[in-house]
Structure to design on (272 residues):
């Protein structure tokens, strides 16, 4: 029976994240999903300390176990698809680089200016801290049989496939959160641009228009208007029309949320 008092993401956060396999599962993420689905016990991870085990088991509320379980299932399917890809052939088409090695080569994709290398088994390697919301879009982008080059035509989130249904959530969890961060920390957007190789662009009706590349052919545009004449600031996130083809809609949504949450984390942890 699933453990209903523990959120799977809290389980994941408490794990060592070494993917050591001692729980008989390939990764800590798979273990967190299995616990929340009732297929594993917290005690099956020998590296989880007693205090964390007790805390998880007694104090948290559930609800998203099935969601994470589904996420891990989808991730496994993506890893399978990677096995059949011809990295050398697709790399130039999708804006990646093929790097040969002794075990079939790696497909290198840049996310926000940082390199992530996908191996033949669908594992992702990087000098950066790898977080699940980055891994799934990287694999989905690489495994997508369709691909569209950057168009230069910008769309609102609601104009992307499936965007209408998630527009309210997107507004509250991405645009409003980022706007409030920009309001609280002057210069934050410029600093994020420096950190993540964003490109300020002109020609938009905005005080700051900044393009970021979470994937090579997946640009998003942040348009920010400063407060003026008693009006509060505003912030909109637009997507190049190619984004509608280059990632599944759900992935675009989770990628955007992951991105803004990371900005939120950075803004709280540091003066960027
Ligand atoms: S035993 Fe624990 S640390 Fe090792 S992979 Fe499983 S959950 Fe992760």
């Amino acid at each position: 029976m699933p453990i209903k008092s523990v959120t799977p993401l809290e389980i994941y956060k408490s794990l060592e994240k070494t993917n050591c396999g001692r729980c008989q599962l390939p990764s800590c993420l798979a273990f967190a999903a299995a616990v929340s689905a009732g297929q594993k016990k917290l005690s099956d991870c020998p590296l989880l300390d007693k205090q964390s085990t007790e805390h998880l088991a007694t104090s948290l509320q559930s609800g998203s176990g099935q969601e994470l379980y589904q996420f891990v299932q989808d991730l496994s399917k993506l890893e399978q698809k990677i096995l059949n890809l011809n990295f050398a052939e697709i790399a130039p088409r999708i804006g990646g680089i093929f790097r040969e090695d002794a075990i079939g080569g790696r497909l290198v994709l840049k996310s926000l200016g940082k390199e992530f290398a996908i191996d033949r088994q669908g594992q992702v390697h990087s000098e950066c801290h790898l977080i699940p919301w980055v891994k799934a879009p990287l694999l989905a982008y690489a495994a997508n049989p369709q691909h569209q080059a950057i168009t230069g035509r910008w769309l609102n989130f609601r104009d992307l496939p499936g965007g209408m249904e998630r527009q309210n959530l997107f507004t509250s969890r991405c645009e409003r959160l980022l706007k409030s961060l920009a309001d609280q920390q002057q210069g934050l957007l410029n600093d994020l641009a420096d950190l993540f190789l964003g490109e300020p662009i002109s020609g938009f009706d905005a005080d700051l228009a900044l393009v970021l590349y979470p994937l090579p052919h997946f640009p998003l545009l942040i348009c920010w208007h400063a407060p003026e004449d008693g009006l509060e600031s505003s912030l909109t996130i637009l997507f190049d029309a190619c984004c509608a083809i280059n990632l599944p809609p759900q992935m675009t949504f989770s990628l955007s949320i992951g991105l803004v949450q990371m900005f939120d984390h950075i803004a709280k942890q540091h003066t960027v």
The CA atoms of residues 148 and 245 lie 6 Å apart. The radius of gyration is 20 Å.
